Every structure is written in structure tokens, then in C-alpha cells.
Input
Amino acid sequence: MQHYVPSRIAIIVALLLPLLAPVSTSWAAASTCFSETKQCIADQFQPFWQGNGALPVFGFPIAGAQAEVNRDTQQTYST
Output
């Protein structure tokens, strides 16, 4: 029996690839949204997220962007 490892790998990748793709990019302008968490990557986070590994590196977003105040400096940052 011959082993066809490359073809098995190709089949596995083909089956898993749709799971890594965003479900919709039309929920908001310049955003990537996921039905799994009902959250989107948008605004200034979108280019960074896409350019630095996207879903395989960062995983699914679990919360929307929000403003947080640094207690030490009193500056507000988007997180």
C-alpha cells in the first residue's frame, strides 16, 4: 500500500480552509466579521490584524472595540 501524504495534507487543508475564512465582510465598512462570535475587526484594528497573521495568529474577536482610560496617564486608548 502506498502512502499519499501530500494528497492527504491537501485534502485536510482544503477541508479546514473555509473555517479560517471570515464569514462576511459586509456588516460594516472595512471590517471582517465572524458569525462564530458575532464580532467584527474594524477601523484601525483591521489593517494590523490582517497584516500580522489574522485569524490563525489572533483567533476570533470576543468583544468589540472600546475606549479604555490608562489609570496612570489618564489617556484614552482604543482596545
User: Anything to note?
Assistant: Confidence is low (pLDDT under 50) at residues 23-28. The two ends are 54 Å apart (CA to CA).
